[in-house]
Amino acid sequence: MVSAQIPAGTTIKGEIEARGDLVVSGRIEGIVRVAGSLRVEAGGEVEAQVHAARAQIGGEVKGDVVATESIHLLAGCRVEGELRAPRLDIEEGAVVRGSVVLGEGANAVTQTAPIDGPPPMPASALAMGERRKRIVVPPPND
Predict the structure, then answer these.
(1) Residues 22 and 41 sit within 8 Å (Cβ to Cβ)
(2) Domain coordinates in residue numbering, the chain
(3) pLDDT level of residue 105 (50, 70, 90 thresholds)
(4) Can you say whether the dihedral through the CA atoms of 32, 68, 93, 79 is positive or negative?
């Protein structure tokens, strides 16, 4: 169920807070907080810091995306920024420029990778391979 929609041809600047789901076909600039799902349609543009339970991106996003549950990048989308979520789905044809932090606790802004751990995987490597790839990273064993 969609709680709010930003239609094509509409630009909103500022801070947006949605208690339900939000669909963006237009443009948002600023800060976006969504308690449910954020869906950026093909042609939709978001230039913002995004916090949501779930994010599905089919358009363009410039800024960090933090999701408490999952991020799904659709074919043809373009993302510039850091992606943080416990789960990330990337379809072939999605373009990511930035970094990816996966696993439990990835939505915590202060989390960093252990110094003695493996180097981070470039986002471009995540999109290679099958048509759609699901990546689930378990938390490290301490």
Answers:
(1) no
(2) 4-136
(3) low
(4) positive
